[in-house]
Design a protein that fits this description.
The complex is a heterodimer of chains A (110) and B (115). Chain A is mainly β. Chain A contains no helices and eleven strands. In chain A, the strands form two sheets. In chain A, strands 2, 4, 5, 9, 10 and 11 form a six-stranded mixed sheet that branches. In chain A, β6 (52-56) and β7 form a beta hairpin. Chain A is globular. The mean pLDDT of chain A is 92. Chain B is mainly beta. In chain B, a hairpin with a 2-residue loop joins β7 (65-71) and β8 (74-79). Chain B starts with a strand and ends with a strand. The chains are: A mainly beta (110), B mainly beta (115).
Chain lengths: 110, 115
Amino acid sequence: KNEVEQSPQNLTAQEGEFITINCSYSVGISALHWLQQHPGGGIVSLFMLSSGKKKHGRLIATINIQEKHSSLHITASHPRDSAVYICAVRSTGTASKLTFGTGTRLQVTL
Amino acid sequence: DAGVIQSPRHEVTEMGQEVTLRCKPISGHNSLFWYRQTMMRGLELLIYFNNNVPIDDSGMPEDRFSAKMPNASFSTLKIQPSEPRDSAVYFCASTPRDINTGELFFGEGSRLTVL
């Protein structure tokens, strides 16, 4: 079992839909990152969380430390949100190593 | 700011050749990471520098891989000799402060194909 599991692996939505991507992890962490990777490959850091909730525009990230679970929500989705979303965790005691999920491929259609 | 700059963006080479990938972190960032991304294994950390010193190189696959950071504004990842299984996208990332609190800023990646 991977230390970081994401679901779903693939997601297709229509423009305007509310989207949720989930991330579960099995280790104690000091931080969790949500990353976005567009076709063409560049990676952008969306959020870094250690507790609670963060919001940036139409994106919201939450984390429940007790349940070892994080969600990334996209409100009013748009085709430009189409990308791979990657969850990554920094385990406690491993200052440098991020463990990455396999990503969720999101396609938003008109 | 220009962001993290990587070069080359694409490299195609033949097995056995030396490959050098370059990275310029964001000015003022004191931590630098090299990651490798493949379809099979996803993103993996290769090496982490803090203040130009290698802190964790446990992800470097084998002796064919080496990385240097001669100063705060430049790092290289070298593969010698290259093999087809090294084909991947190599990302450099930097963070402005303590690794436990800083967000990561990624370069655009260097896509390596070894024939």
